[in-house]
Amino acid sequence: MSKPIIIAHRGLDQTYPENTITAFKAALEKGYAIEIDVRGTKDEELIVLHDDSVDRTTDGEGRVAQMTLAEVKALDAGSWWGEEFAGERIPTFEETLDAVKEYGTADTTLFIEMKTLDPGCITKICDGLASRGLLGSTVGFGLIHMSVDVRRRFYGGSPDFQCASVANTAAELPGAIADPYASWIYVRYLMSADDVKAAHDGDMQVIASGPDVMEDLDNMVASAEAGADTVMSYMPDAFAERLNG
Length: 245
Hints:
TIM Barrel, 9 strands, 18% strand, globular
């Protein structure tokens, strides 16, 4: 069994506050890829945060779309997880790319879940990746996998930007393989080896994901055995231990 790249969901968020540089660095140093959530502020700056508000993971309140970058950066994004992380900040997209460039070692090391599509964001993302040599090791999904038009727009931003189409079920797999603007498939069911082979035969790579995979170690291992290129996990350390055991 070839070992897939393990994708740490929002960084190593079992141990560190999610979507922070501390969580990203910890995951990257273990050889994992990281999954991040990208959205825009009121002043059209890109930050890394899952929720549309700062309420859950900071000491502040408010919707990100109504806050400036300076207001977001003033918040403590670590104390909610533990006092030892007090002073941790919500990272910008650019700061996150710098961390990936410095600490990432996996062939594919960054998975971007787009939460919003703000003016100019496609150019900012493609240019930021290109300037760091990260286009070939990054995959986009989120709003990207939901819309062929968005995938087309990213292709226009850079033909080297790797988009993912989506297959929620085996019945959706042929359509995902045939997508003209995708080179990856974001798979949200437990794939068989035949499914993975069909994707590979169509020159597509596979992200094994979805609740049935991300929350179940046995299904993570089954995805690896089926030949998935990457597996997204809520428990990357436990998964790595199973793979290496």
